[in-house]
Design goal:
The chain is mostly helical. It has nine helices and no strands.
Length: about 170
């Protein structure tokens, strides 16, 4: 009877040991799962605002004819990727919507209504060289999707989005 109870005790010990090991493993998994949330929140906060895909679409529609389909520049307009490295979303929106000559102070770079419309038309038809970038504030598609445009160009500049169409 002592041998039987020793064997039973050993089985129970193994069973308790396996249960303890399983509980520790599950506790480790739940701790890892719980710890992912702050990392995901930080990653989400550091992402530029807007949709890369929607920004790509706006870029293709409004900007690619001058800056190239991948924003790497053409004869008519510069490569935007190196310029995006030091620009935050607020400055980007100001440059694109209100003024676009990056070398002039803001007070000298704005163009009034009719003159700006004429300038946009000249650029779109490529009648004049060298091209000067207009302020896009009055253009509804660009104004509405300015943060999406920023997200696309920032992703291209950072290397997180390659050339070509991004995933929707």
């Amino acid at each position: 009877m002592t041998q039987f109870s020793t064997s039973t005790r050993q089985r129970r010990g193994h069973l308790y040991g396996a249960a303890l090991l399983a509980a520790l493993l599950l506790a480790g998994c739940s701790a890892e799962w719980l710890n992912r949330q702050p990392a995901q929140e930080i990653a989400q906060r550091t992402k530029p605002p807007g949709s890369v895909y929607v920004g790509w679409r706006v870029f293709q529609e409004r900007c690619a004819s001058c800056h190239g389909t991948d924003a790497t520049g053409t004869i008519n307009a510069p490569n935007l990727l190196p310029r995006m490295k030091d620009i935050g979303p607020r400055r980007f929106a100001g440059l694109v919507l209100q003024r676009y000559d990056w070398t002039l102070p803001p007070t000298q770079a704005t163009t009034p209504g009719a003159a700006r419309e004429t300038q946009v038309e000249v650029i779109m038809q490529r009648k004049d060289a060298p091209l000067t970038m207009p302020a896009w504030q009055g253009e509804p598609v660009v104004s509405a999707q300015i943060m999406d445009l920023y997200a696309y160009l920032a992703a291209r500049s950072e290397g997180t989005q390659g050339p070509g169409r991004p995933q929707p």
